[in-house]
Amino acid sequence: MEFDLRPARDHGLEGADRLKSLSRERGLGSLILGRAWRTMLRGYMRGFHRLEVTGREHLPPPPFVIVANHSSHLDALTLSAVLRGEAARRAHSLAAGDTFFTSTLGSAFAAYAVNALPIWRKRTRPSEIATLRERLLQDRLVYILFPEGTRCRDGVMAGFQPGIGALVAGTEVPIVPCYLDGAFAAWPPTRKYPRPGKLRLTIGAPVHAQDLPSTRAGWEETAQRCETAVRALSGQ
């Protein structure tokens, strides 16, 4: 058995700086909390939303990126709940920093329970995308990403932004398209809390983009491939 004895990526970071860092790694306490959170989340999804999942066989071993439509705060929770084993332990939701990481309490919940990493929508630098890509490959992570960039306000899926293309550029990382139905009705942006309602998650065959150049045009084509795959799962 081989052990990775390198220093932790977040060594030397403390407090809020560590919570908001893209280099944040999970310690023992965070792993235990994350497992307990996932157990509760799966029970909630079964009991409150009667979650139905099809296509789970399309999930590859890490690393991979999940992309999905985004209409509700239930989306990331649902996708986190369906992952199992190594994929569940290595999963990070890429969450809006200006929504989930603006307070110490919110940052702590997002970091320790959901294991989210912040994406600052109006000021993400190329170096931060490079850090995410490096971790994806070297740490064999799973990212949950919503390429629309924000929750839709009317339940209708918007176009995908090219950030997904920049993230996987120059790699062979598979992108797994998913479509979640029912989340908007259960917890739309206009409601403070969710209500009961059935959720259906469809997981599609992975999309690949290693044949595309690492240019703006290549990133946009990657986003278009992902959007087409997700729309196909929705029947649109």
UniProtKB/TrEMBL annotation:
GO terms (molecular function) for this protein are:
1-acylglycerol-3-phosphate O-acyltransferase activity
Per UniProt, which keywords does this protein have?
A: Acyltransferase, Transferase
UniProt record, GO biological process: phosphatidic acid biosynthetic process
Q: Where are the transmembrane segments?
A: none
Q: Where is the Phospholipid/glycerol acyltransferase domain?
A: 64-183
Pathway(s) annotated for this protein in UniProt: Lipid metabolism
Question: What Pfam families does the record tag this protein with?
Answer: Acyltransferase
User: Which InterPro entries does the record associate with it?
Assistant: Plipid/glycerol_acylTrfase
Which CDD domains does its entry note? LPLAT_AGPAT-like
UniProt keyword Ribosomal protein, yes or no: no
What is the name attached to this protein's record?
1-acyl-sn-glycerol-3-phosphate acyltransferase
- What is the organism field in this record? Neoroseomonas marina
